[in-house]
Design a protein that fits this description.
alpha/beta; Transcription Regulator spoIIAA; 36% helix
């Protein structure tokens, strides 16, 4: 079970077991990103090898550079698991008017060989 509530500067993180979805939503600029994401990495290292399927859903409106590094590390772990035979995909949601968020998603996608959908949302809309 993985569930971390959002704060003003950190995203909500949740694993939805019945759907095999790891979801991260909100803003990510905690004082110490590596400390914030530590439980996520622990969960991934313990649970990911046992999963045959996982969808990673992300809707981050803003992330600082250290959060970006953590996101890269998460995506690398997911990519490694996919190379081992698991069905892993990324659904990256961004606010349609936020060009920087789109650029960031495209940069992440460029480095991966797993299915990576970039989905625009109207301002204020939440992903489904």
């Amino acid at each position: 079970m993985l569930s971390i509530e959002a704060t003003k500067s950190s995203p909500r993180v949740e694993y939805i077991e019945e759907d095999n979805v790891l979801s991260i939503t909100g803003e990510s600029y905690p004082e110490n990103s590596f400390e914030f994401f530590a439980p996520v990495f622990t969960w991934l290292r313990e649970q990911l090898p046992q999963l045959d399927q996982l969808t990673f859903q992300v809707h981050i409106r803003y992330m600082n550079s250290s959060s970006t590094k953590c996101m890269l590390d998460i995506l690398d772990l997911l990519s490694d698991r996919a190379q081992e035979g698991a069905e892993v995909r990324v659904r990256w949601y961004y606010d349609a008017g936020n060009e920087r968020a789109l650029d960031l998603a495209e940069e992440f996608k460029e480095d991966l060989e797993i299915p990576f959908d970039i989905v625009p949302l109207e301002t204020g809309e939440l992903y489904r």
